[in-house]
Amino acid sequence: MKGIIYLLIIISVISFECNNVNAQVNINERSVLINYGIDPDNYEQVIDSLSSTDYDKRWFLISWIKTAKISAAISELKLLYHRPYSISLPMSRGLEQQSMILKAIIELEDTSFQEEIRQELDTLALNDENAYEIIRFSSYLQLKHNDSYGWQHMKKYFLYNYTEDFIYSMIYYLKPFIYSSHHEEVIEILRSLATFDIVALKYLREINDPESESLAINMALSSTNSYYRTAAREILHSIDNYSYVTTLKQLLDTLTESRLSIYLELLEAAQPSIYKFVLDLYNVNQYPADSSIIVQALDMKWLFYPDPVANVVDVIDSLSSALFQFYNFGWIGDVNFVNELNTYVLNSKTYYILNDTVSCINQLKLLRGKIDFEIRDTIDIVNTFLNEEAWKYLYPRIYFIERKIDETWENDVLFSINPSSVPAGTPATRVRLTGSGFSHGSLAYWDKNYYLDFYVISPSEMDIIIPQTFLNKPGEYEIDVSNYIARVENSLPFSVEPPVLDLVALVPAVAILNSGAFTIEVLGSGFTSSATVYFGGQEKLTTFVSDSVITAEILSSDVIVVGSFPVWVKDKYSISDTLQFSVMQVSNPNLVVNLKNSLGNQIPANNVMYYEGKWKDAVNNGDGTFTVITTKPTVSIRMFYEYANQTVHNVPAQNNTYTFQTVNATVQLQNSLGNLIDQGTVQYYAGAWRSFGTTVNGVANKELLPINYSFRMIYEYVLLDKQQDISTNSTVTFSTVLCTVKVTKANGQPLSGASTKYYSGAWRDIGLTNANGEAAKELLPKSLNFRAASGNVSKDKQQDIGVNNLVEIQLNVP
Q1: Considering only CA atoms, which of 790, 791, 787, 778 is closest in space to residue 807?
Q2: What pLDDT does residue 303 have?
Q3: What is the DSSP code (8-state) at residue 126?
Q4: Homologous superfamily of 737-810
Q5: CA gyration radius, the chain
Q6: Whole-angstrom Cα distance, residue 316 to residue 343?
Q7: 3-state helix, strand, coil in the chain (%, to 5)
Q8: Measured distance CA(354)–CA(694) in Å, rounded
Q9: Domain 312-497, what architecture?
Q10: Which of 546, 606, 643, 752 has the fewest CB atoms within 10 Å around its CB?
Q11: Which positions of the chain have pLDDT values less than 50?
Q12: Contact, 814 vs 794, CB < 8 A?
């Protein structure tokens, strides 16, 4: 029985040392009290039992009083403390009891035992094994009585022979001495500890110690503890933003893990210059293994949306300064355009200061509309471009200000729409709405489903912008206006009238006499799926491609007579204007161009162009060949095939035939043993990623022009890109590596049955670990995130398996 009691006493002491009552110890204490015949919830009985002559029982009662915080026991504890030791009780046991009583009195927050604690410190100081008690009692004296008596006893433990574990558990007891008479000594100790302990660094930051910045930089760069590195960066951020950003940039050269968090922290600064820094790293491929990480970081954060509590004037000012930065970055193309945008910004600020929020909002909407137009403007004949990066900063900030200014709404009612109809295919159109209750919190809808851009003119007038994509299909639609709170009050009809067919060009526009059947492209606007092409008055088999492109099949019998033939388009709504197609006779073609595959068989090209002051289309002869008609002795020719093109120069252009030839490009996928494997999806890049095929018997083939391509292999959801000139080597080889995930327990021993996964678009299974703690899978060699899990414990790790295919993960499980 006594052995059990001593064991529970030890557990209770450990509970005090952790400054936290362990639930299991609490249960055991109650059980022992009951064994002694004491009801643990009967505090009067507990206090009366302190008079027991049984030392072990008394010890355990003191522990329970401390644990249960029985404040009514303080008086009895004080009497017990001053009671002389029993003759039969060894002196050491009496000292232990006194120390235990002091701990209980301190836990019960009684402050009347200052002198007794001093005496206890003198006694404890005789033995260095009492370091933990000395530090706690000394800190308590300073905290409760502003009495630094214990400092001389405790400081040596922080100066000599300390371990990191000791400092981790004891450093909190230094804090009460920071503003004591020993301030300078404490600061020196904290500076020493702050080279490896984050709490010491936090204390120095709290008092604005001048060395806290350099210490934070050192810990952020060199600590082996990832939590400490992160916390040190947070502290450094609060001290000096420039040093913080500089340190983050340095970490990119040294840190091998958690690199995504570094990029995210950089981007959270919401500074255009830092965003450009990250973007430049990606564009120049400074850290090749980080390419996917940088893309992920950019996707994860809408970087420049301001803090919800940001001041409106400050945000407006940030727009003004950013405009000129973007011009210097090359993100905005013209200084006059910058000045134009800045005029809207300055006007909005002036109106806001004058409390004219309607005018302020209108200026911002003009600004927002301008940049939104430029981001979509593909013509840009005056170089006023604004790129996506500038838009990402400006647009959300403008929207933020609009929402910040107007936070009240009322019901919106529509009276009229002008215009109430437009022809199909009309460009984006501004429509004036009249009604009541309009505010900057209003929302305009197209046919109850899509938001429309709008500009509030007054509570009774607003303009909406209907994009062209909504105006291509004839029909009856609805315009609705509502706000974030009120329901839609009413809607009004809007008509898209049948389209006006307009022809722009024919491709080709010329054919050689008796050249055979061919397909003609008709370019224009207003086309629908019901459109039909007429050639020389005859209806032709027509294929709808888009609202601006349709094709028609021209028969060989249509080009047996020299002349000019009218071409027009008709649909169920209207008939277009007319273009002329010419059939001409060429007795001696200047240059005939054809395309052959790797076997020497002629194949149809997509198009051939030649350069004569500008790039021009060669005449499609309809038999797979093209004719270049020119008086120049030599020309440059461009062949188009499978979305790619190849250009040759100085080709004799008189009475000559020139042949382009494809190569049979082979893409193969090998495993780590060099064996060919299936199910690899292959793509190549030619203006966009194009399908190449799937490996069968480890190989996929495609005839392509002999130029430099980027190839992409997708295997087990992981993709890998590779660039190769197939004119010099037509076989492109991708190889997997045998990725092995090794999982160990906290003690370093292998962990079997652990679940292992890797992330590629989603978490993908590798498998359960075997008796050696290993699971393996053939994967393409690149940087991936891996996860090991056992029960409720999991851990992620990022690793480039092209550098090291053994991924080692230790789980904190027994």
Answers
A1: 787
A2: 52
A3: T
A4: Carboxypeptidase-like, regulatory domain (2.60.40.1120)
A5: 40
A6: 12
A7: 40, 30, 30
A8: 66
A9: Sandwich (2.60)
A10: 546
A11: 1-25, 87-92, 408-410, 484-487
A12: no
Please give the C-alpha separations between residue 185 and each of 164, 179, 431, in angstroms, as whole numbers. 20, 11, 75
pLDDT at 165: 77
Residue with tokens 């011009």: 327
Pairing verdict, β 806-810 and 737-744: parallel
Q: Please tell me whether residue 72 adopts helix, strand or coil conformation.
A: helix
Task: Quote the pLDDT of residue 323.
Answer: 93
DSSP assignment letter at 287: S
Location of structure tokens 């080009």: 559
Rounded to the nearest 5°, which phi and psi values hold at 434? -120, 145
Residue 408, CA atoms < 13 Å, CB-side half-sphere:
4
Tokens of 55: 């030392």
What CATH homologous superfamily does 507-571 map to?
Immunoglobulins (2.60.40.10)
The DSSP bridge pattern shows strands 681-685 and 663-670 to be unpaired
Give the model's pLDDT for residue 383.
65
pLDDT for position 588: 55
Residues above pLDDT 70, as percent of the chain: 90
Q: What pLDDT, in 10s, does the model give residues 148-181? A: 888 988 888 888 756 777 777 788 888 888 888 9
Helix or strand or coil: residue 812?
coil
For 362, the token pair is 């209108």
pTM, 2 dp: 0.44
DSSP state of 575: B
By residue count, the chain amounts to 814
What is the longest distance spanned by two Cα atoms in the chain? 136
Residue 552 CA to residue 524 CA, distance in Å, equals 14
